[in-house]
Design goal:
Length: 297
């Protein structure tokens, strides 16, 4: 067979020597063995995770974007993320500029459309089972999507370090405003919302760049880290501070540290267990029934 592009020998006319066929076959076998070994190592790590969970008395889960990407919620850092097109407006600009507030709300609703149908996945349900079982006092999260509450965890048992994007608040009086009421008025008038109670500025209840972290939530998270005997990181790259200090606090107090994340983190070297897997795969046994499986005595 002659190649139509260059006149050279086509693939069908190339005969491999026996030694070449053996080499290719050997490389395929090595690759297959490597994949199997990685799979086996991951399964062993998942089994160890559940043994550690079974031995623990006070588990604190700390979640990041990775748990919610499995529900279709985009993260900030992945290539092609819609957050790159709709970057959050810095807090100072939001406060000082009407035009910035208009753009912030436009971007807010554009992002909401990307994951309006997102539902809790197996990972969320598994962590909710730990709370329902009384083995986890609360979940600490960097996420703003409200999926932990949607999975059945009471709002007071979710510590939201970066706020919540499912509603808005007045920056002056703190009054809560529902997005379902804000959006149609904004889209009809193009004007940023103001508070119905005091006429103050209304903003999505998330923590923007340059906005002060919620001190009460940070103090609660630190107290949980100090008191737990197992600190479970799920889907966080651990690069956003001060939230990323919480695993270190827990570890220094003697807690076991488990990091479940698809990519390496800078805290992997101090962890007692590192698992490279989706949260749903690793945590599925906890979500196998109401409250998760019974704890072994």
């Amino acid at each position: 067979m002659v190649c139509l592009l260059c006149g050279g020998a086509g693939l069908a006319s190339i005969a491999l020597e026996p030694s070449q066929r053996l080499a290719i076959s050997g490389e395929a076998a090595i690759s297959s063995d490597r994949v199997k070994r990685m799979h086996d190592e991951t399964e062993d790590a998942i089994a160890e995770l559940h043994a550690m969970l079974d031995r623990a008395d006070r588990i604190v889960s700390f979640t990041g974007a990775g748990i919610s990407t499995e529900s279709g919620v985009p993260d900030f850092r992945s290539p092609g993320s819609p957050w790159m097109v709709n970057k959050p407006i810095p807090f100072e600009a939001f406060v000082q500029s009407r035009e910035a507030r208009i753009e912030a709300w436009r971007r807010k609703f554009a992002m909401d459309d990307h994951y309006r149908d997102a539902q809790p996945n197996i990972g969320h349900i598994a962590l909710a089972a730990l709370v329902a079982d009384g083995r986890s006092p609360a979940i600490v999260t960097q996420n703003i999507d409200g999926l932990h509450q949607a999975s059945g965890v009471a709002g007071e048992k979710v510590v939201e370090l970066h706020g919540n994007g499912t509603y808005a608040t007045c920056l002056d009086c703190g009054w809560r405003h529902e997005l379902a009421a804000i959006r149609p008025v904004f889209e009809a008038t193009g004007e940023p919302p103001v508070c119905l109670m005091c006429a103050g500025l209304v903003k999505s209840a998330t923590i923007s760049f340059g906005q002060a972290m919620p001190q009460e939530q940070m103090m609660r998270a630190q107290a949980l880290a100090l008191e737990c005997d197992l600190f479970l990181v799920v889907g966080s790259s651990l690069v956003v501070f001060p939230a990323a200090t919480l695993p270190v606090i827990a570890k220094r107090q003697g807690a076991r540290l488990v990091i479940l994340n698809r990519e390496p983190t800078e805290l992997d070297p101090i962890a007692d267990l590192v698992i490279r897997a989706d949260s749903g795969r690793a945590l599925a046994p906890l979500a196998s029934g109401p409250g998760g499986p019974a704890r072994q005595g």
